[in-house]
Amino acid sequence: MGETPEWAHPSPAPTPPPSQPPPPSPSQQPSPSQQQPPSGWQNGSGWQNGPGWDGAPGWQGYAPRVDYKPGVVPLRPLSVGEILDGGFATIRRNPRIVFGSAFALAAALELVRLGLGAALSNVGGAVTSSLPKDDGSRLVITSGGVAAVVLSYVASAIFSALLAGVATEVVGKAVIGQRVEGRAVLGSVGRRWWRLVLVSILAGALPFLPVLLVIAGPVGILPAIPLGLYLWGKLALVVPAFVLERTGVGAAIFRSWRLVRGAFWRTWGLRALAYLIVMIAGGVLSIPFGISTFHDLSGGNSASAGSIALSTVGAGIVWMLTQPLLAAAVTLIYIDRRMRAEGLDIQLSQAARQAANASQVS
Q1: Overall pTM > 0.90
Q2: What is the CA radius of gyration of the chain?
Q3: Which of 109, 145, 239, 325 is least surrounded by CB atoms within 10 angstroms?
Q4: CB atoms within 10 A of CB 211
Q5: Cα–Cα distance measured from residue 184 to residue 319, given in angstroms and rounded to the nearest whole number
Q6: How far is it, in rounded angstroms, from Cα 331 to Cα 285?
Q7: Do 347 and 251 meet the contact criterion of CB atoms below 8 Å apart?
Q8: Contact partners, residue 120, CB within 8 Å, separation at least 6
Q9: pLDDT digits (tens, 9 = 90+) for 47-78
């Protein structure tokens, strides 16, 4: 599927014609009083006469820039506050598709987690019951716990990737003020879901590759940490590039790598800030759901079935509320980077105006 026009790569500038008309003779050249100023200084948008400059020949007042904002953010390079506010605004304007998808995926994720936990518990219990109570039995129990954590993480990564795809599609339309249709968004994500999951898992797992090298031995812990942090920043924009530009898996990774070039620390810091906000919000939201479990454990008892159920529901609710915001913020970081590096704001302004004119005609 090709790129949508408003998110396409910037096209190269057209080559000039091979020949130019000869310059006019000195008798045909206009006098200095008839010559026009360069186009960047003409009485057009952005360089109109303003108060206080009327009497100065050769100087024209600079009119305050009016931001064009057809959607959730102005179409110009964004500030940190505008990126965060744009994420909240996108969710507020499209709660149905965002929270509807998040609720369905959160419910499925928690069911998968419960199923994995029950299955591994039954298998581990059956195996350990046939073993003597020694170190081998404890090893089986520990291995089962590790397997449960790993599989739960994989399931979370898959469902988070799908939700990120939905949120990215919604942000892409909300930025230019287009109407978001849930069926179209879900259809677009569904057609490429397995590649979306693959590119998301790769972008999330590659920064941890240095940790595996530390475990294997060839790389020490000191060089591994900065290498992992570097990869985390360079791969920050993989999912938005894949979803909005309709690229392939490898192309999306290289696209993020190139976009971050020249703005690594800004991109890294914005992404880290978004994660920090989501982590704090998730921790605060989780407190009411964990009180019962904490009460059971503090009394020396194991967690009751009611406490476990309440914690499970709370985890799903927190995931449903925080993950769309994180995906929206990362998408706006991608859009901001393209506006700064490629002039995407001009392209999006044209697409937004064309969509507005088309809606007026219809």
Answers
A1: no
A2: 27
A3: 145
A4: 15
A5: 24
A6: 24
A7: no
A8: 144, 147, 148, 151
A9: 333 443 343 444 444 445 678 999 999 999 99
